[in-house]
Design brief:
This protein is an all-beta fold. It is 2% helix and 39% strand. The protein contains one helix and 24 strands.
Length: 319
């Protein structure tokens, strides 16, 4: 169960980001430290009578930072920064080597959770360069809110934030997940890039959903610019094609099935279905509601199930 909260603003002159001093450190205040502990993620359990019981507010870090203090989900390398407190998306690995792992998209990136221990975080980010008066250049990391999150057919982690789309290849080792070496290292990006057919890198694409078929086609949905099919050409570039037949520019959710079907949830035109040919698009009339809030595909049962949550309730589609 994830929570959404506001972001703290910088208050310490020599710390440009929202740096949060811990008890006993310079500039520490009890009130600000208490605010910093709001948000994050609860592990809950549903009892046989339907009641929901708190198991634990997650705080156990896989790294050196914060793992001995009940601070919530924080940057595994340095818990002082106000990152990852707002949970925007959640995906569970349904099968394969990493079955049971949970990934969440946050206000700063993507966090991996195994049982009650987390490793935070990875982000598809870029650096904004600003010239200084002395002729040097300052760099500012642009991470973006990570609304789009998915698990590919081979267990790859699909990432889509306000600017970029990315595909991570996890190695199954929790402690390795936050090691950012871009194209190398234990958890490399097999793709990280932006839609040059739509905007410049600096402009928001407002990605809100991402899914990938077994055939290797990646689909991304935008809050403002509709549905796009992405075909990767190398690790940092791809061809993006907008699906103009979808009667909505606001895509809220995507799910790809083992049979090659892609389901598309919209903010204002209900649920749609793309056939295996990647071209035929039809509305799913059996699902009520104009606003699709979430899609969850479960391939572990036969026939497989798609949960479609809309403004009119929950519908289960099978096969």
């Amino acid at each position: 169960m994830g929570y959404h909260t506001y972001e703290l603003q910088p208050e310490i002159p020599d710390k440009p980001h929202a740096y949060i001093p811990a008890p006993g450190e310079p500039h520490y205040t009890e009130a600000r430290f208490a605010e910093y502990q709001k948000g994050d993620l609860d592990a809950v359990r549903v009892e046989s009578d339907g009641t929901v019981v708190l198991e634990e507010h997650l705080w156990r870090s896989a790294g050196m930072s914060g793992g001995q203090q009940q601070l919530g989900i924080r940057n595994t390398n340095d818990f002082h920064y106000d990152e990852d407190r707002s949970v925007l998306a959640c995906q569970r690995v349904m099968r394969g080597r990493d079955r049971g792992d949970v990934y969440i998209g946050t206000n700063h990136g993507v966090t991996l959770i195994r049982d009650l221990t987390y490793n935070s975080h990875r982000h598809a980010a870029w650096y904004l360069e600003t010239p200084r008066a002395d002729g040097s250049v300052s760099q500012s990391l642009q991470a973006g809110f990570n609304w789009g999150l998915g698990i590919g057919p081979g267990g790859e982690v699909l990432v889509a934030n306000d600017w970029l789309v990315g595909i991570l290849q996890p190695n199954g080792v929790l402690a390795d997940f936050d090691r950012e070496l871009t194209w190398e290292g234990p958890v490399p990006w097999s793709y990280k890039g932006h839609n040059a057919q739509l905007n410049s890198l600096e402009a928001f694409d407002h990605w809100r959903a991402i899914a990938r078929t077994k055939a290797g086609t990646t689909w991304v949905g935008s809050r403002d610019f509709g549905l796009w099919r992405m075909e990767q050409t190398d690790r940092s570039s791809a061809n993006y094609t907008r699906i103009t037949t979808l009667p909505s520019a606001n895509v809220t959710a995507l799910a790809a099935t083992d049979g090659g079907i892609v389901y598309v949830g919209t903010q204002d035109q209900g649920l749609w279905r793309i056939e295996e040919d990647g071209a035929t698009l039809t509305r799913v009339e059996t699902v009520n509601g104009r606003q699709v809030l979430q899609l969850v595909y479960d391939p572990t049962v036969a026939p497989a199930m798609l949960y479609a949550l809309t403004d009119q309730g929950l519908t289960v589609l099978r096969d």
